[in-house]
């Protein structure tokens, strides 16, 4: 039991305050900007996770909860005993600053396996925390079920049971810019919303092969003679932005170097990456103004339904001796990005099948290039994992508990959560 009347945990970005009064325990989670109010079980759970704790026991049906990690322990027992135990780490050393997460209600959704869609591009939230969530979400993109079956086949126990090859692109392509737009705020770490989060848009191989294939694409006669695209083409601007990042920032393409910079990334690097991401987002907002608000969502879906095939096909090509130049990098991943470019015409055909016949094919190709580059920018502004270790990450909390009301009894039951600053009124 927490015997002191007042306990507090302070970190560089947030605080937990608990106040014990006769008959009840008030728990308040507050953040410097903006205030964060714990008003239900989901917010209480997310508040603990923000401080680097993991819910090792989370059984709402029994009222039993235990969160541990980052030097802290939080134990809750709801009816019938209503106990609250909290053992904070008194001093947060700067050496563990990388344990801090980006602070935002949108980020909290990731703890529950919910990917917050970018409202700028009219995207909804997507549930990806469990295998069934992934299959359901993929089915909404491809009602034929073909892409969902490919994900299931890839996850066979004898192959890669934890992986979501291709599907994991949904994270950088659909997600909002969760870290915010202040480059001086270098916190980049995010919770892991799915069993597998990396992909060709995180790996160095994806970056390098994309660059070479983009250069080749722009140099091709059929592109340089295109009368449809404006001058200068947006695809040319993407190439310029990409090469500028590569020349100035080694962490742009170097995945290992980027992953070493978790919450201490260069403000200059972040500023430039955010600027590029915004340029790409504005490009799609402009398309939406002239064609309708579903263009980006359809383009992303067309990409994902093809992207799920890369892993199997890359290994098949390698076994057949048909792999292409990997520039000294991991061969099967490099081949995967080559396949993404091979899929481009399939993406175009799929978009046309959805009714985008009025959009010239050259414009559809350009839009795909911009979307992939935008995904690269998103990843370099965030961090979720190191290498492939995310498969061993702690499981997400059940998505049904996100913002679920009335999970915590009111004062009559002995346990109440109140908004920040209202403890004195209790």
Quick synopsis:
This protein is an alpha+beta fold. The protein contains 15 helices and 10 strands. α6 packs across α8 (about 235-250) and α8 (about 235-250) packs antiparallel against α10.
Q: Any overview of this molecule?
A:
This protein has helices spanning 41-50, 105-111, 131-141, 146-154, 170-174, 204-219, 221-224, 234-248, 255-260, 267-291, 295-307, 310-319, 331-342, 344-353, 361-380; strands at residues 6-10, 14-21, 24-31, 54-59, 64-69, 72-77, 83-87, 114-115, 126-127, 416-417. With 426 residues, it is of the alpha+beta class. The strands form 3 sheets. The chain has a 4-stranded mixed β-sheet with strand order 1-2-3-10, with no helix packed on it. Helix 6 runs parallel beside helix 13 (331-342), helix 11 (295-307) packs across helix 14 and helix 14 (344-353) packs across helix 15. The protein is globular. Mean pLDDT is 79; it is low at 1-39, 91-96 and 405-426.
């Amino acid at each position: 039991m927490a015997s002191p009347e007042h306990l507090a945990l302070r970190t560089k970005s947030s605080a937990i305050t608990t106040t014990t009064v006769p008959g009840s325990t008030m728990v308040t989670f507050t953040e410097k900007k903006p205030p964060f109010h714990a008003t239900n079980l989901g917010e209480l759970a997310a508040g603990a996770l923000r401080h680097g704790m993991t819910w090792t026991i989370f059984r709402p049906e029994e009222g039993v909860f235990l969160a541990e990690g980052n030097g802290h322990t939080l134990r809750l027992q709801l009816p019938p005993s209503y106990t609250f135990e909290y053992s904070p780490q008194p001093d947060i050393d700067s050496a563990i600053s990388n344990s801090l997460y980006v602070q935002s209600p949108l980020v909290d959704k990731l703890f529950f396996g919910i990917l917050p869609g970018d409202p700028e591009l009219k995207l909804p939230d997507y549930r990806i925390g469990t295998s069934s969530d992934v299959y359901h979400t993929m089915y909404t993109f491809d009602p034929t079920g073909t892409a969902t079956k490919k994900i299931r086949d890839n996850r066979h126990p004898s192959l890669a049971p934890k992986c979501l090859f291709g599907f994991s692109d949904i994270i950088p392509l659909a997600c909002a810019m969760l870290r915010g737009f202040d480059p001086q705020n270098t916190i980049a770490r995010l919770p892991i919303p799915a069993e597998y989060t990396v992909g060709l848009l995180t790996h160095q191989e994806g970056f390098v092969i994309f660059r070479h294939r983009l250069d080749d694409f722009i140099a091709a006669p059929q592109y340089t003679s295109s009368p449809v695209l404006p001058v200068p083409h947006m695809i040319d601007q993407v190439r310029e932005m990409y090469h500028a990042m590569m020349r100035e920032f080694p962490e742009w393409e170097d995945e290992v170097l980027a992953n070493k910079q978790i919450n201490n990334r260069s403000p200059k690097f972040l500023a430039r990456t955010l600027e590029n991401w915004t340029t790409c987002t504005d490009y799609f907002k402009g398309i939406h103004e002239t064609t309708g608000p579903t263009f980006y969502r359809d383009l992303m879906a067309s990409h994902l339904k093809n992207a799920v095939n890369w892993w199997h096909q890359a290994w098949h090509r390698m076994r057949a001796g048909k792999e292409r130049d990997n520039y000294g990098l991991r061969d099967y991943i490099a081949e995967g990005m080559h396949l993404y470019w091979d899929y481009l015409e399939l993406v175009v055909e799929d978009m046309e099948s959805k009714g985008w016949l009025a959009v010239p094919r050259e414009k559809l190709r350009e839009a795909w290039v911009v979307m992939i580059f935008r995904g690269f920018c998103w990843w370099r502004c965030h961090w979720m994992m190191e290498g492939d270790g995310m498969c061993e990450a702690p499981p997400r909390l059940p998505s049904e508990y996100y913002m679920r009301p009335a999970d915590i009894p009111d004062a009559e039951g002995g346990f109440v959560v109140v908004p920040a600053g209202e403890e004195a009124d209790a």
